[in-house]
């Protein structure tokens, strides 16, 4: 290569780098000034779903800004959850809040028959993960939700999310799941700055004795407070996986935070098996067909009161705060919400019956009180009659302490009167 050619190549590279730097600097200036910036991303644009498969039902790849209304009836949606899990995401990725909104929209969409979550994540932030997991479980009570790891991993928060699916599969023997545990990293910036010759001090208000105490004590070598906080999160994580996988789990080895390859993960119940991505599509097709046949009857049989009430006017006011969507197929709410509605309606019926019984008892009591009042009146009348009879002996009653005789005519003694005979014998003797 001649010197001239090499110089031309280097100059070309320099020009490209300079152009790239100038363009990015211009974008930064616009961002600082609050002007709209096109970063080449379609994050803030409504996009059409991408077709992934036609073999077993139509599978569409969807995202936060996908226009779900354009997807045909009976389709399956696949949502990718990739990379570190954070609550709010960043400029180039979506967070748990975004994914939760997407899952909720897919659960409510009548044209979406099933949901596939393609998870490949090393874990991430605890905040927001439980919210997303709950949304996935609720969606699974409405329609099939399959989680799949396609030649990757689902660790920590990634597995928390994955375990919430109705069924969980991996595509490779080398896929890994687990890391059910919690940890945090702290840095002793004070020591670092001190080595740089910068002394840093924190001054706290006298009332703020517990503020950052866990961090301060940990820097001093006492991790007790910090471990207690992590223990709460870890137990919630373990309890959630136990609930999600339920009777599929065969051991407790996974509770220590260990990772497992496919074979062992299947053995202990963290996954349901290994299959190709096309086989996952086929499995979803089976679940969709089964679900479509039983959804109407199952909803009516399981929740007859709620299903009947949902089709009546004013249902929202009857059960406030429950997001419902009444359609021909039934009521599209979570199984837990349906159970709560059914219980509320059952309690309402019981309260109505109790109120009716109380009203009847009150009527009986009123009748009894009326009869008692009549009886008391009659007793008073009889008492007055007795008092009147006592006064009708022909004379005014004698004053207390006197021996005045009344006007009753004394009866003549009779020879047959026993008292007279006794008195006569006493006089003879």
What brief labels describe this structure?
single chain, 429 residues, alpha/beta, 2-enoyl-CoA Hydratase, Chain A, domain 1, 13 helices, elongated
Topology:
Blueprint: H1 3-32, E1 50-53, E2 59-62, E3 75-82, H2 96-108, E4 112-120, H3 129-140, E5 145-149, E6 153-155, H4 157-162, E7 167-170, E8 176-178, H5 189-195, H6 213-219, H7 224-245, E9 259-261, H8 262-268, E10 273-274, H9 277-302, H10 304-310, H11 315-318, E11 326-327, E12 330-331, H12 335-390, H13 418-428
Parallel strand pairs: 2-3, 3-4, 4-5, 5-7, 6-8, 7-10
Antiparallel strand pairs: 1-2, 8-9, 11-12
Q: How is this structure best described in words?
A:
With 429 residues, the chain is of the alpha/beta class. Among the domains are: 1-37; 50-184 and 224-286, Alpha-Beta Complex (2-enoyl-CoA Hydratase, Chain A, domain 1); 303-367, no CATH class. The protein is built from 13 helices and twelve strands. The protein has helices at 3-32, 96-108, 129-140, 157-162, 189-195, 213-219, 224-245, 262-268, 277-302, 304-310, 315-318, 335-390, 418-428, and strands at residues 50-53, 59-62, 75-82, 112-120, 145-149, 153-155, 167-170, 176-178, 259-261, 273-274, 326-327, 330-331. It has a seven-stranded mixed sheet with strand order 1-2-3-4-5-7-10, sandwiched between helices. β1 (50-53) and β2 (59-62) form a beta hairpin. The radius of gyration is 43 Å and the shape is elongated. The model is unreliable at 296-300 and 316-332 (pLDDT under 50).
